[in-house]
Amino acid sequence: MNFFKSFRFGIIIRVLLLAATLLALVYLILETSYYVSMSILGVVIIGQIITMVKYLERTNILLTRFLEAIRYSDFTGTFRNQEMGSNFDELNESFSKVIERFKEERSEKEESIRYLETVVQHIGIGLVCFNGKGEVALLNTAAKRLFKVATLREIESLKDISEALFKTVQKLKGGNRSLIRVSVQNEPLQLAMYATEFRMRDEAYKLVSFQNIHTELEEKEMEAWQNLTQVLAHEIMNSITPISSLSATVKMLLEENLRSDSEQVSLNRETVVDVTDALNTISNRSQGLIRFVNSYRDFTQIPEPNVELFSVNEVLLRTANLMKSQADSEDIKIEVQTEPESLELTADPHLTEQVLINLVKNAIRVLSDQDGGKILMKGEIEESGRVVIKVCDNGPGVKKSMSEKIFIPFYTVSGDGKTKGSGIGLSLSRQIMRLHGGSLILNSEKGKGSVFTMRF
User: Fold this and answer.
1) What distance in Å separates the CA atoms of residue 362 and residue 420, rounded to the nearest whole number?
2) What would the pLDDT profile of 162-192 be if each residue is shown by its tens digit?
3) How far is CA 314 from CA 320, 342, 345, 352, 374, in A?
4) Is 102 exposed, middle or buried (0-12, 13-18, 19+ CB in 10 A)?
5) Rounded CA gap, 341 and 381, in Å?
6) 3-state SS of the chain: helix, strand, coil percent to 5?
7) CA–CA separation, 272 and 3 (whole Å)
8) Whether 401 contacts 382, CB under 8 Å
9) From the CB of residue 180, how many other CB atoms can be counted at a distance below 10 Å?
10) Could you report the per-residue pLDDT of 390-427, keeping only the tens digit for each?
């Protein structure tokens, strides 16, 4: 029974009927003069042809429906056998499976979009995305709270919040960071911004993230001031205490031993020696305090970097030559490696050399009491493509607890006058690297040497 309902059977019957009708028409034309019958058969043949064409076009209609459903993403319809025979069961089933798969993909995509929208709206960092025309395509909840706005249609509306903020956002390139201090409704904000540029549907977009780090900076600033105050108090007290004590001693000695029988004043030799020693000590401590104040002034007056392109290898060799005499006096070997040797860097060569000198001096002090001391200055390119310069030594290393403290201004490790530094070199070096937008990091283990990495 299925055969008689199949599409194939319908085609066979229609072809046979059309062939029989054509044979009858030919017979009538050749053997008879029944013109009325001929006309009737001609009309019947035309009707059979039209019926067969429509019957065959049912497959085209089915395929057109399927393609239109995909084109307009209309997956509500179904594909079932609509009296077309069992031959189309497999085709209808395939169409239905494809449509179901499209439905699943669309549902998964919509769920992913809803998930991302939820994450974007609930994340604690403000996000603003705008196109090349300045039209804002995204403004999440955190950004609305940060800028205290209900909506932001154009990025130019940031001018109402802060002209400096708008200019910074406009100038910020993809992959760059920036810090800016603004005030929103009398509330101070210290914003850390990061920009990313991308293209979507042949249109350029810029996504900027905003994070208010005002509280964190205040905490760090307070911690820095506390550390600096402790160091300043320690250094000043080290100088003021003996000055005050010795001044009182000198006064006491003069009062006890001063004999004034006339206008001439006489002191015994022992008292003169004691007073002289005390005054020399006061003078030395006073000079030390002056040097400390000058060091503090140097730390707070670092010039802005004058960047230019220069050879890393030349700067390393020049630094090695400058420090060679001091290193040889301590029997310390200085080596230079640059990979590749033609490596170049865009920075301030003089400030870069100053950092290297500070690091090498620090290493010489550490290695002064050690046999087989060695310092390696190495320039290379990291996997990220950034240029780095490393100053390595085979000294005793630094305790983990002290690895950050040594960068605090005027903080010095214990040691005698020969090995103890002023506490300004490493702080000054890190400050110079920050002015370059880079960093100075120490990697060290006790007993395994130290590696200072200048990352530009």
Assistant:
1) 9
2) 888 899 998 888 888 888 888 887 677 888 9
3) 10, 10, 11, 12, 20
4) middle
5) 11
6) 55, 20, 25
7) 136
8) no
9) 17
10) 999 988 888 776 766 777 766 666 454 444 555 667 87
314-319 contacts: CB < 8 A, separation 24 or more? 315/349, 315/352, 315/353, 315/356, 316/356, 316/377, 316/379, 316/389, 318/353, 319/353, 319/356, 319/357, 319/360, 319/377
**SS3 per-residue string spanning 159-187:** HHCCHHHHHHHHHCCCCCEEEEEEEECCE
pLDDT of residue 9: 73
Q: Which long-range contacts (CB under 8 A, 24 or more apart) does 355-358 make?
A: 355/429, 355/432, 355/433, 355/440, 355/454, 356/315, 356/316, 356/319, 356/389, 356/391, 356/454, 357/319, 357/322, 357/323, 358/425, 358/426, 358/428, 358/429
One-letter amino acid at 405 equals K
Residues belonging to the chain:
456
- Rounded Cα distance between 410 and 426, Å, is 9
